[in-house]
Amino acid sequence: MYISVMGTGYVGLVTGACFAEFGLHVTCMDIDANRIARLEKGDVPFYEPGISELVMKGLKENRLHFTTDIAKAVEDALVIFIAVGTPTRPDGSADLSYVEEVGRGIAQAMTSYKVIVTKSTVPVGTGEKLREVIRTHQTQPIRFDVVSNPEFLREGSAIEDFLRPNRVIIGADSAEAVAIMRDLYRPLYLIETPFVVTDIATSEMIKYASNAFLATKVSFINEMANLCERVNADVQVVAKAMGLDHRIGSKFLHAGPGFGGSCFPKDVSALIQTGEKAGCDMEIARATSRVNERQRLLMVDKIRTAMGGLTGKTVALLGLSFKPNTNDLRDAPAIAIAARLLAEGCAVRVYDPVAMEEGTKLLRAATPCADAYDAAQGADALVLMTEWNLFRNLDLSKVKSALRHPLFIDLRNVYEPERMAALGFHYISIGRLPRTPLTAT
Ligand code: NAD
How far away, in angstroms, is 395 Cα from ligand 1 center? Predict the structure, then answer.
């Protein structure tokens, strides 16, 4: 089967490369000519474990092609995935202009039946809107179906998530389109991946409900962490014990500087907007978003208090990406927090294993460093922002001797307070105060 994917970002490229891996012929299209030129040579413009190898393999086996020409991408494809961005508009709603632009392009180029699939995260009603856009821009009336197939991959483990997803959602109103989608995903069928086949609106809603729920879990545990600090309880133990309850589950219960990235903040915001349009106040989503914004400010307060003021001080900041194993800096808490520190007159020495190039463009006043120890050199405090494995296993005595003051602010609760105290650090983390060890009676 021939398919195409519009947009070669994190989702589009992973989708294209993985379907090529399933044995399909895939054409990936993007309007960014520079990106396509790089991809044609197997040069992936972002960091994602395993993607370069998969792209190289697809190119070598002649199953993966890249183009900037939408007509070429539409021509032979039976299924066309739309995986372009749906960023936030100033009013918080999802900007669907890229999706609609692709819709118009497909409409004008199509000469045979197509299944047109939204893989981008799009609000309820977009499938219908897309159908209308295509219908009104067709040069001749050709049959097509619209399908919603939201993507749940996580940056950092995107390929594994795509090849072994928890579930595949197919929203459609045509039996023919469902059959084609099932055929496409046959390799996942064989490994008994659950499929949820439903209508388009429900499918679109599933993605927002899932992301908003996960974001809510994060805001919930962050709020618990803040309370734990006030009442001298330990949020790590609270979260662990909560997570042991199978009804709750342990995932997304890690206290930290708040959620970020290209999905959670934007999707929560779009859900609030969808609710507003539908006359349904999304109170929980609003609180999730507010708590998340506040958490970033609280982290700055925490750093300021620990350092006894920020002006004229220097912080070593470890990690810029919103989570490990990606160089995605979109809405990363580290960027917002570092910008605030700089604005308050604090010098910031940064290091991230893969996001330095983009990160230092966003934080021009920060000093880029060669590694964690270089960042710590002469700093008044170290702030651990992103829990890269590399930062989980720091040579702590080296860190301590590099720092001007042994102040270690761990915004991911990676290290043990007792151990850090024993090593002579003034150690501050989230939702847990230094504890006195239990003594036998
Ligand atoms: P991205 O910004 O990395 O990539 C989008 C790509 O689309 C860019 O390369 C851009 O040049 C291209 N593009 C824009 N307009 C185009 C057009 N008219 N024709 C062809 N290409 C065009 O975005 P992403 O992170 O891959 O996200 C894409 C969608 O998937 C979003 O809706 C997002 O919410 C959703 N999603 C993202 C993730 C994730 O982890 N990144 C996970 C699940 C779902």
Answer: 38
